[in-house]
Amino acid sequence: MYKVLVIAYYFPPMGLSGVQRTLKFVKYMKNYNWEPTVLTSDSTGYYAHDFFLLKEAEKANIKIVRVAGKGINAKLASKGTVKIPPEFIRKFLSRLSSTFFIPDNKRGWANEAFPVAEKLLQEEKFDLIFVSAPPFSSVNMAVKLNKKFNIPLIIDYRDLWYGNQFGFYPTPYHRYLHKKMEYKALKTADKIIATNRKMKEKIIEKYQFLTFEDIYIIPHGYDPEDFKDLKIEKKSNSKMRLTYSGIFYEFVTPKYFLHAFKELSIERPDVTANIELHFVGYLRNENKKLVKKLEMQEVVKEYSYLNHNEALTKLMSSDVLWMMVGNGRNADTISSGKLYEYFGTRKPLLVSVPDGALKTAATEYKAAYITKPDDVTEIKNNILKIYEDYVKNSLPVPDEEFIIKHRRDFLTELLTKQFQFSVKEGVL
After folding, report:
1. Cα separation of 76 and 70, whole Å?
2. Average pLDDT estimate for 154-173
3. Of the chain's two ends, which shows fewer C-beta atoms within 10 Å, N or C?
4. How far is it, in rounded angstroms, from Cα 135 to Cα 237?
């Protein structure tokens, strides 16, 4: 059994989709002869906590080492789950943080975690270091560990570093530092994992010393075990249930969708009277105000944040699922874990995304109605088309072969093969 030190700031009991990629990898690593030790954050103030996911990690008997750190999240730990502020405040705080903390405000956690990682590597023989990013301060820490202990390093990019769609660089010096840090990390890494081809191409375009062999694509996925024994809710009426799961922030907004539905309700009230819009997650105050302004309170059902099992139950109890990612810098590289979990439901989807990785994946799924993220008319027409297909019982069926390729256990097997290659190359 080989041993891997997994560095992942975001890990249960933190919730939301960002924690699931790493959780599912470590859950299945032992199946492929790799024993993980996860170095992660301790109690934090965060927008969502999911103790159902934590139990999953504990059930898999994963060794977890927690470090508190000194960042803002650690200081808010006593408050537990904190409310997401209004978007303009969240965005301001994010930009303020990006101005003063490079590469990110998890730098304090990484500084505290470094000596803990050192101790682990001194006391036990680890064959490899695997770091999940963002936050990219964790990557800087992993690079230092690699230099000190000469252990192969693999970096998993869930999002871009330099040029990230949410990145803010107030001065040329900020840009320089980010690029310098990323250059050093990529030069050091034995292998880079990216979630999609667009991301891989962008990284190689920026750092031309990299070859296509240096970056391996492992997409997001779904866990078939999550769907076992779910108790599907019986619908109380015959209305078509269209559901969104997740939170809204930055370029992810329900406003175009809600305006589209409102227009359809004016043009075809006979259709919209037979549709319910369900939102699983945080429908923030500004979104609730828009619902009220559009007089759509009766059609919108909000469930707030639910644990992973409860959220999947809502998805499986729906007829159609909706997701969106808006236009933004390098939006074509975004690879939402939400969409891949939607794939696991085998439900028809309404996908409002820009050209790029998400649109490609939704197209290959073969059961998605795809629109531009901000085209109200196109979204409206697709809602109408979905409803007509629903009434005729002719909603599209997804490509089963495509779905199976994205099982979390299969994806973990691909990852551990890269582990194996890196270890062997390190020996040579």
Report:
1. 10
2. 93
3. C
4. 44
pLDDT in tens, 202-221: 999 999 999 999 999 999 99
How far is it, in rounded angstroms, from Cα 185 to Cα 178?
A: 11
Same-domain check for residues 53 and 186? yes
Tell me the C-alpha distance between 210 and 36, whole Å.
28
Q: State how many domains the chain has.
A: 2
Distance CA 292, CA 255 (A): 12
Q: What is the pLDDT, as a whole number, of residue 79?
A: 66
Residues 374 and 412 in one domain: no
Same domain, 199 and 59: yes
Q: Write out the DSSP string of 74-140.
A: HHTGGG-B-PPPPHHHHHHHHHHHHHHSSS-TTHHHHHHHHHHHHHHHHHS--SEEEEEESSTHHHH
- C-alpha span between 110 and 7 (Å, rounded): 10
Q: Six-digit token pair at 320?
A: 């159609």
d(CA 354, CA 333): 10
Q: Same domain, yes or no, for 196 and 230?
A: no
Q: What global pTM score does this model have?
A: 0.94
**With 0-12 CB in 10 A as exposed, 13-18 as middle and 19+ as buried, what is 30?**
middle
Share of the chain above pLDDT 70, in %: 97
The SS3 of residue 151 is coil
- Contact by Cβ (8 Å): 66, 323: no
* Containing structural domain, residue 14: 2-221+408-427
CATH number assigned to the domain comprising residue 246: 3.40.50.2000
Whether residue 91 is predicted with pLDDT greater than 90 in this model: the reply is no
210 and 287: one domain? no
Residues 213 and 76 in one domain: yes
Residue 428 has pLDDT above 50, yes or no: no
SS3 content of the chain, % helix, strand, coil (to 5): 50, 15, 35
Question: Cα(257)–Cα(409) distance, rounded to whole angstroms?
Answer: 34
> In this structure, are 38 and 157 located in the same domain?
yes
Mean pLDDT of 131-158: 97
**Statement: residue 352 has pLDDT above 90:** yes
